From TrEMBL:
Pfam families: PaaA_PaaC. GO terms for molecular function: phenylacetyl-CoA 1,2-epoxidase activity. Its EC number is 1.14.13.149. This is Phenylacetate-CoA oxygenase subunit PaaC. One of its GO terms (cellular component) is cytosol. It comes from the Bacteria. One of its GO terms (biological process) is phenylacetate catabolic process. Keywords: Oxidoreductase. It comes from Alcaligenes faecalis. It is an enzyme of class 1 (oxidoreductase). Gene3D superfamilies: 1.20.1260.10. The gene is paaI.
Length: 254
């Protein structure tokens, strides 16, 4: 088994799956019908990407676990998603801040994965990039509109960015998985994405009249541990809801 490829595919699959679940929680609770639909569509895009990554993980593992088995029959400590995506939705500004920061990283990453030496990674990236490019344009536009909106929306967006910022740095940390795959030119080093991503974020926040938090607060004070299976309690509650029916009826088929 290619352990590095399995771990990376699982990490990406878990991250997109958990974020899709979080966005799906807004269904029926959105601040406006247009936003509720846009949020649901983004969730569906991410769910489709999660299926591709988890399918790759299952095939690489070779133990008969498909994407459903990986999604619904693992416990919290077996999940390897980044901590940013498991954060609770909070108010809509909190959700947008989380989405904007993730989208920026995700888009720059997929641009590099399109050139991957691994054919399966390359195919997933090619399918996902167009979707994520739209996600980034949408979340950037909303950040600008709300940041440069009323005094209340400006204040809320600034706090939302500040609160999410400490989780950003984990996305750019390398470990033995990314280092091995980078040597094979299958994925980029995560650290190499930091400067272009930071420049994009800074430019967007400047347009939004928002203050960009200090770089070292993301890089050196970052919360970390998600890819190693160390999570916040928020993920446990999310998985309990998401996995309830498959765990109750493990042999059920549609």
């Amino acid at each position: 088994m290619d352990k590095a490829l399995f771990s990376y595919a699982l990490r990406m699959g878990d991250s997109t799956l958990v974020l899709a679940q979080r966005l799906g929680e807004w269904t029926g609770h959105g601040p406006a019908l247009e936003e509720e639909l846009a949020c649901a569509n983004t969730a569906l895009d991410l769910l489709g990407q999660a299926r591709m990554w988890l399918t790759l993980a299952g095939e690489t593992e070779g133990q008969g676990r498909d994407e459903d088995r990986l999604a619904y029959h693992r416990d919290v400590h077996e999940y390897t998603n980044y901590l940013l995506v498991e954060r609770e939705n909070g108010h809509y500004g909190d959700t947008l801040a989380r989405q904007f920061l993730f989208d920026a990283w995700h888009c720059f990453l997929l641009e590099q994965l399109i050139e991957s030496s691994d054919e399966q990674i390359r195919e997933i990236a090619q399918k996902a990039h167009k979707e994520v490019l739209y996600h980034l344009r949408r979340s950037t536009d909303l950040i600008v509109r709300l940041g440069d909106g009323t005094p209340e929306s400006h204040k809320r967006m600034q706090k939302a960015i500040d609160d999410a910022w400490f989780y950003l740095g984990e996305l750019f940390l390398d470990d033995e998985v990314t280092e091995e795959l980078a040597q094979r030119q299958a994925v980029p080093l995560m650290a190499s994405l930091w400067q272009p991503c930071l420049e994009y974020i800074q430019n967007a926040l400047e347009r939004a009249t928002l203050r960009c938090p200090a770089e070292q607060d993301a890089q050196h004070k970052a919360y970390r541990g998600g890819p190693q299976g160390r999570h916040t309690e928020a993920l446990g509650f999310l998985l309990a809801e998401m996995q309830h029916l498959p765990r109750m009826y493990p042999d059920a088929t549609w």
